[in-house]
Amino acid sequence: MGAVPEPLQQNDPTFPDVWEELLWRGLVAVSTDAAELQALLAGPPVTYYCGFDPTAPSLHLGNLVQLLLLRRLQLAGHRPLGLVGGSTGLIGDPRPTAERTLHSRETVAEWVGRLEDQVRRFLSFEGESAARIVNNLDWFGQYSAIDFLRDVGKHFRVGTMLKKDAVAARLNSEAGISYTEFSYQILQGDDFLQLHRQYGCVLQTGGSDQWGNLTSGIDLIHKVEGASVHAIGTPLITNSDGTKFGKSEGNAIWLDAAMCSPYRFYQFWLNQADADVVDRLKVFTFLPRAEIERLEAAVAAEPFRREAQRALAWEVTALVHGEEATRSAIAASAALFGGGDLGQLPEEVLRAALDELETATLSPGASVVEALVATGLVASNGEARRVIQQGGVYVDNAKVDAEDAVIAPVLAGGIVVLRRGKRSLAGVYTR
Length: 431
What we know:
Blueprint: H1 18-24, E1 30-31, H2 34-42, E2 47-52, H3 61-75, E3 79-84, H4 105-120, E4 132-135, H5 137-140, H6 145-151, H7 158-163, H8 165-171, H9 179-182, H10 184-199, E5 201-207, H11 211-225, E6 230-234, E7 247-248, E8 251-252, H12 262-270, H13 274-284, H14 289-301, H15 307-321, H16 323-336, H17 347-354, E9 358-362, H18 368-374, H19 381-389, E10 393-395, E11 398-399, E12 415-420, E13 424-430
Parallel strand pairs: 2-3, 2-5, 3-4, 5-6, 9-13
Antiparallel strand pairs: 1-6, 7-8, 10-11, 10-12, 12-13
Helix pairs in contact: 10-11, 12-15, 12-16, 13-14, 13-15, 15-16, 18-19
């Protein structure tokens, strides 16, 4: 494998300003006044923020959109605040259909630490535009219920709150909505107010599905401080077939390597459809417009080469997991399909790869025929023998010539990799 370029983090200088680049990348679904925002972001450095609630032990691809938006604005000279919601995470923003499960304070506190570490990986904490991590428990923890109702709650009108999309959806559902989740927009609005007061924050970013929560802060600051602030809502990313982006086999694609291995993460990006890959390059990479347009032309002219998907998979996996882990994922992918030495792969990489395959657990010395059937690569012993006779079966990339061949594990962890033909893979764990 040849040298792969390091993923650079810089904005594209061919755009007149960062706002124009955000528009080209499709990162603005809704916003406050566009002309004012463009002027704001083209002027002296401003402070802006995005919030991340610890409702799980890891961030996911939806959060990655926001993390990279924070970074793009920082590269333009502005100062990011990464807010991890130690208090809002105890409640959770309303989902469209049902109440969230409330987690213990101890669990949320642990998740706060994990999310803070993840946010730190995407921002710079040095120089004039240095980032800062904040936790809204620092101010909400000081409120009494009476203080909160008097000082914050009095500025919110129930009629307006009822019209918010998330609240309206829940009111029309069988589950309804609790007062706890109904109050979430007040908490997020107060976040913006506190950050405006403490750091001069004038911009909040978030997903467009959070627009009601974003505007609650804008309205609160206008009422209390008499100031005008801004918000950007990024689009909800879907696949070209209309399905939800960021799911693989029904599971979320997490940023934590323990919850989604770099191998699986890399494969997810590598398998993006031709119809989606250019939009993914715009949103999730720092590749410049000229390079993305070149890759777009390559998709149209030679889609079978999947050059755009390989560029996308490298760029995003290297950003999230680092170059070494990305190279290991690429090596594992190549080795599994006969393009490299399986014996050079560490056990943890092999196991991560096998997590994506059908597997079986067999005793050493079990027949290859038995293994083919147990892993579902064939439907019967007879079919297994026919495929072996036709020269289409490989064990650890070595062709199997004999119908009575047996499993003899030589890879790390007693793992055996089966392959039928060029593309059908399965794994065997020996015991």
